[in-house]
Amino acid sequence: MTIAREIKEPKVTAELAAEHGLKSDEYKLMLDIVGRTPSFTELGIFSVMWSEHCSYKSSKVWLKTLPTTAPHVICGPGENAGVIDIGDGQAAIFKMESHNHPSFIEPYQGAATGVGGILRDVFTMGARPVANMNALRFGSPDHAKTRHLVSGVVAGIGGYGNCVGVPTVGGETNFHPAYNGNILVNAMTVGLAQADRIFYSAAAGIGNPVVYVGSKTGRDGIHGATMASAEFTEDSEEKRPTVQVGDPFTEKLLIEACMELMATDAIVAIQDMGAAGLTSSSVEMADKGGLGIELDLDQVPQRETGMTPYEIMLSESQERMLMILKPGREDVARAIFEKWELDFAIIGRLTDSGRLVLKMHGQTWCDLVVAPLVERAPSYERPWEPTPAPAPLEAGVSTLTQPIDAILEKMVGCPDLASKRWIWEQYDSQVGGDTRFLSGQADAAVVRVHGTRKGLAITTDCTPRYVKADPVQGGAQAVAEAWRNITAAGGLPLAITDNMNFGNPEKPRIMGQFVGAIQGMGEACRVLEFPVVSGNVSLYNETNGEAILPTPAIGGVGLLHDAELAVGLAFQREGDVILLVGETKGHLGQTLYLREILGREEGPPPPVDLAVEKRNGDFVRGLILDKLVASSHDVADGGLLIALVEMAMGKGIGADLMPLAGADAGMLFGEDQGRYVLAASAADAATIESRAKAAGVPVTRLGITGGRALTGVTDTAISLEALKRSHEAWLPAYMAGGSGLD
Amino acid sequence: MKAAVIVFPGSNCDRDVAVALEHAMGEKPQMVWHRDADLPQVDLIVVPGGFSYGDYLRSGAMAAHSPIMREVVARAEKGVRVLGICNGFQILTEAKLLPGALLRNAGLKFICRGVDLKVENTDSAFTGHYQRGQVVNFPVAHHDGNYFADAETLKRVEGEGHVAFRYVTPAGEATAEGNPNGSALNIAGVFNEKRTVLGLMPHPERAGEALHGHTDGKPMFASLVETLS
Domain limits at B163? Predict the structure, then answer.
């Protein structure tokens, strides 16, 4: 038996509070609430509860403006994840969350624990996780750290997701110098539950046991939430000890044990210990239930000796859950966790005091009223400046100045468009046996709902260069693109999760980006009937004062009543008619063509007409569900010709594109929104055209599939083989150490 | 046919192979928890894929020493058919039911993709429904699938027809190009001497229905059901 050394806590002062990230007025507010000088443990609890990461103090006034309801929404933001009804008594539960700062400091563990954390957010609500996605943003490929970060993050995501047995079915990976000092790792999990078996986090039942399950608590990750709420500087490497370490094997056991326990009636409430660990889970559960909670920290399973109450409460050790059990059900629960060889400990009781009381070694270390920790957390209406409208491009920009085949070869091999096979082949995308499409094979990943014919269509989207140029249009575009990608695969878009990655909100220019993006997103969500059901905000993504591109990553989920009806983007056979749905105006501002070929990041982004977006999308989805479409792809990064090349490269089936002969850069590479390219048999194409006429949707013929090349656009055929080589070569060559550009 | 699927902590393809078996058998296999004392009387035992015990030691090494594996080995010696897929293959080599070992992939990275395989021997309960030399496509998903054995063992395995599946190009050639992980002689799956135990890295249960894009795994389960019923 070890005898605990005597614990001496430092005296709390304004300076110590400042070191904990509390501003002087926040410190005063805390003193006012507590009515005395708080203990060191109490200060730690306030500092994490009031951190940007946990309190959303800069963002919540704006987040409240987003639409969060619809008839199919079972639970919107505020719980561990969002819940939507997918019919037949089933629910899909999902959320996306960032792990940006830890992944930059320690890419493998940072990314791995990001996956672990988002999985727990979903299975804590009673859902078995069925799909993982991720949205990754790295710095310039030329930056010294980028290769190391890509390698570590991808290995971390794979290492965790592969082991827990949840397929990683897609996502997006982009590169831009604005992320050189601040990469983004946004992980999304989708799970399935019975709609009448969803578990929430509000504590209930005075006297009910508070139970800790999962891994033991160590000193890792202390102040992770606070770190995630501050800017980076050159000495960020020193923060490595604040990064948590993941154990996917324990997570797998925890999933199975929780699923087994959730099949009984033992649980009153459950919450994972994520950011701010035992502090946020116990405080939030008690607050939601309007109750007090008393914990005996001696009972918390500990991995290290001599831990203090402060350390136990602030640890972010992974793979832990806190739950409230019904009285008398402790033994049922204990037997299940013992079977799975996980720690199980009754660490406290719910009380009627409304207070958080923490005891250890016979002393009281914390005695705070619960409610103010949450409800009186600071909330700021930070000053913001609207982003000035960018100057339009000059009229002559649409004249092609380079041969089309050379442009294509360069664009399909550029870092943003190049094949990400090197990444996704490191993820187990098939486990579960329900994967229909990875994102990349279709515009959205499609995963069958196990044991049914239904399918979930899942996507993550954002075009940060658009958001930077015009946050309102860019925010709307991110939502519209998610909606469009689900539609292009045949899904009915149901709801989104948003992962708002921005710089320092205390700078009015940055806050203006946030506000604009929220306004654009909100408008798109309303028009497209695509509410926000969960989300996460990551601010202070700056290093040495340089902010990232504003990146409101959108994770969208849609439904197919039959997963077999989903269509991919590759041309399927020769002789299909290629159709363009939507209008092309030739918008070149902020396009990849402009950036990659002309070396300019300028102009306004393409405007989003939400009514047209909805009309075109509803039209396309109807065609797919009526089995009129063989291939379907939205027109996005790189514009129309890139969309066609991607469809052709899928199975190596070319196309004759005579109608595009003589087209200019705007026509070929413009990124006008609300457009889809479809391929259909001649008979089906005729049906589509007559339906389009009736619906008032612009549909034009682009050509016919066939051969091994693209003909008709230029005088000579453009070889698919050369394009495919360029497309596939870049990332493996880059990761092998070459520049990949020669 | 009666079948059992062994479930270790960290197994994650147990449900998938159970689904494939159920499609073929018309009834569910029995799921046997690694600590269950009794292994039921069955005609086929499947050791599924996953990360048993986290594979924090050598892949499969911990599971091979679990009590249930002693029982599996005893049944195998009596001629009960045993199928090990992916982590299951690793466990069967660690348990010495199959020759050789699975090392880290030559490329050092996890690989998940469809691979072309040549069926080398159809004289078994597992492969009877394939044609000899047929090229089939199953997905692989592993970090440690690089088959290794000493020269003498390889000679014996090859000479006595114990190679079940070989990685090949789409044209059926067992070249380096067709070898995803550096396996000796492009070996993807091997039998024991009596061809009553099969281990393979690729996942036949992931190529079992139209949704998977390939159905080449189905004949393996159909063959087992026909032979063992």
Answer: 3-228
